[in-house]
Design goal:
alpha/beta, 2-enoyl-CoA Hydratase, Chain A, domain 1, 7-stranded mixed sheet, 4-stranded mixed sheet, 11 strands, ClpP/crotonase-like_dom_sf, catalytic activity, Enoyl-CoA_hydra/iso, Enoyl-CoA hydratase family protein
Length: 264
């Protein structure tokens, strides 16, 4: 995808043919949205916006996980920052309002907050190895902040099921419900005409066209950010969530999990 021009703290950057690729590269925590990774994404988006040679941003990943969501090691700490949900909301809104198209290439797992990152992108292509799940309810929280980009773009009946059950689903189902633009056996082949089309668009035309298709999503951010960030912070600070996060990190069932009685 081009010669890397910068790499530090979990995000590798490359610029080729007017497309700036930001590669999430934090394998130790499955590209979780740590405070440092969020900061680095902000920095690179600022650079992309200021660079007249960048026509579009391509967000992708190394390893078998696109993004695991919140960094539970950070979130479960007693001194965890209480403004983390507002920070995530700010990042997602920045992607939605970004004046240049943001495209996602996903070939691995997407969980919880990672689905919000994906939903904030304008166009997304998922490969056959991609899987998706809204796992928040299983650890005692809810997909609050990420609902702002997710709900306006997805099928409400399907999202009700996946929000509540935490079930895993594949790329074709993600495309069917609107979480991604399309599923493809070869994501790079599917992306080629997309990126070519973006290179042919004028900067002004692309920015104005993006404003038309993101209006409802931005309205959700303007209306709900404070309420949903407060809800998220309150849930993460609860005893139930602390048990859920601890259970996840210890690879065990949380205390509330009910095992199904085997049929006789």
């Amino acid at each position: 995808m081009g010669t890397p021009t910068d790499e530090d703290d979990g995000v590798a950057v490359a610029l080729r043919d007017a497309v700036r690729t930001l590669t999430l590269d934090s394998p130790h925590n499955r590209n979780a949205l740590s405070s440092r990774l969020v900061t680095r994404l902000y920095e690179e988006l600022d650079r992309a916006e200021a660079d007249p040679g960048t026509r579009a941003v391509l967000l992708t990943h190394t390893g078998n996980t696109f993004c695991a969501g919140a960094d539970l090691s950070e979130a479960s700490a007693r001194d965890a920052p209480t403004d983390a949900p507002l920070g995530l909301a700010g990042l997602l809104r920045t992607l939605v309002a970004f004046p240049k198209p943001v495209v996602a290439r996903v070939t691995g797992h997407v969980r919880a907050g990672g689905t919000g990152l994906l939903a904030a992108c304008d166009i997304s292509v998922a490969g056959p190895g991609a899987t998706f799940a809204f796992t928040e309810a299983r650890i005692g929280v809810a997909p609050a902040v990420i609902s702002m980009p997710v709900l306006p773009r997805t099928d409400p009946r399907a999202v009700a099921r996946y929000y509540l059950t935490g079930e895993r689903f594949d790329a074709r189902e993600a495309a069917r419900i609107g979480l991604v633009t399309c599923a493809a056996d070869d994501p790079d082949e599917a992306l080629a005409p997309v990126l070519d089309g973006l290179r042919r668009g004028s900067p002004q035309g692309l920015a104005a066209s993006k404003q038309l298709v993101t209006r409802e999503v931005l309205a959700a951010f303007d209306r709900d950010t404070d309420t949903l960030a407060e809800l998220s912070a309150r849930l993460f600070a609860s005893d139930e969530a602390r048990e859920g996060m601890t259970a996840f990190l210890e690879r065990r069932e949380p205390e509330w999990a009910v095992r199904q009685t085997p049929a006789r």
